[in-house]
Specification:
The complex is a heterodimer of chains A (94) and B (155). Chain A is an alpha+beta fold and 94 residues long. Chain A is built from 3 helices and 4 strands. Classes of the chains: A alpha+beta (94), B alpha/beta (155). At the A-B interface, helix 1 and helix 2 of A face helix 3 of B.
Chain lengths: 94, 155
């Protein structure tokens, strides 16, 4: 089964709050691959990228390193699309 | 961070009179204001901001719970409260099920990290089946604060 991963850093000022978490899950659910998000830094933890609650529990603030991992036939596309959300700061201005 | 650091016990509503989302939000914000957590003159503005937030995307994340929240300039200190509805309220939840427990959170607009930590502790508990079940079954303010204390102690 193909896997793909990408390291990113949370760059929007408000961090991964509820709205971006939901946006992430919406996109993750467009793919058949499983999606896991690993949080690095001082308090590492993992979240199912298709669960809003788990993504909010990550409490990833600005500057937090995250690894997005996907496992499945569309893994690479999923990781690319999900990383793009962070690159575009979830449409937030800062 | 612990739940009891920001959940205002005196503002907990063990049985919501409201039967719809906007009414429940107003009832909880009014209760927070009555407990001294928000000036009375800011209630309308904060209620409107919370409803607008819900319209942008429901905070009913499923499993019978909703977490309406907003960052607002009129909020000086992060504070939250809990409302229970025996009959359930339509929050346009993601799983289309009624909401029995509402955790409402108000945060100042300049402390995003504190807000994320509060959401972390709220959802860490709401994810637990036992916590959700006990919350739904707690019919008094004392029972709910006891539950929060136990959760804070990691029981």
């Amino acid at each position: 089964m193909p896997t793909a991963s990408r390291d990113i850093v949370v760059s929007n000022k408000l961090g991964l709050h509820a709205r971006p978490a939901m946006q992430f899950v919406d996109v993750a659910n467009q793919f058949t691959s499983s999606v896991t998000v690993h949080k690095g830094g001082e308090e590492p933890c993992d979240a199912d990228g298709k669960s809003v609650m788990q993504m909010i529990i990550l409490a990833a603030t600005e500057g937090t390193p995250l690894r997005i991992e996907a496992d499945g036939d569309d893994a690479q596309t999923a990781v690319d699309k999900l990383a793009e959300l962070f690159e575009k700061k979830f449409g937030e201005e800062e | 961070m612990k739940l009891r650091e920001f959940i205002v016990a005196d503002a907990i509503v063990p049985e919501l009179a409201a039967t719809d989302r906007d009414g429940a939000i107003r009832e909880l914000v009014t209760s927070l204001s009555g407990a001294g957590a928000l000036p009375a003159e800011s209630v309308d503005e904060v209620v409107a901001a919370l409803i607008k937030r819900e319209q942008n995307g429901s905070t009913g994340f499923g499993k019978g719970v909703a977490v309406p929240h907003v960052k607002h300039g009129k909020v000086r200190r992060m504070s939250g409260t809990i409302g229970r509805s025996a009959n359930g309220i339509d929050f346009a939840a993601l799983d289309h099920q009624p909401v029995y427990s509402v955790v409402l959170l108000l945060s100042p607009d300049n402390q995003p990290q504190q807000h994320l930590q509060a959401m972390n502790i709220v959802f860490s508990n709401l994810q637990k089946d036992t916590f959700r079940r006990f919350l739904r079954q707690s019919t008094t303010r004392d029972a709910i604060t006891d539950l929060l204390d136990e959760a804070d102690q990691g029981k």
